Amino acid sequence: MKTNVLFAGFAVAAALSVTPVYAQDCNAAGTVGSGGSAAAGGTSASTLGTAGACTTDDGRTSSIASGGSAATADGKAKSQTKVNENPNQLRAQSKAQAMDKGTFSKSQTKTRVRDGQLESSTRSMSHVPGQKPTKSTTSNSTVLPQQ
Prior knowledge:
The chain has 147 residues and is mainly beta. It has one helix at 2-17; strands at residues 28-40, 43-56, 59-72, 76-86, 89-100, 103-114, 117-127, 134-143. The protein has one domain (26-143). Strand 5 (89-100) and strand 6 (103-114) form a beta hairpin.
């Protein structure tokens, strides 16, 4: 019993002695994202992308994420995501596609952060032979104010 009380005392003392570290405040910040999905027959495909940026007195930080998935009952499904980074921009692209004979579903998302401009767009489509294809597009963008 004495050991448990002593350990609890140390835990409380350690918790009280920690100095909180705060995140640096952003002078300007923004986020953007888009996503979409398509389904037809026994196929489905979905993609999404998101990005964020924060401008402080010390410069700008950015983040980006993207992903996708595809599924089918009997056919083939594939998905891939690529993220590219260089000193000028972050770019991500996700593609997903599912096919079962002539029926297919596909989705593609492109996301980019460059010079305080954030963009994300998604195109999705599904098709069943003999029917009109179903398509959708979403797009979002924002620009961080200059300091």
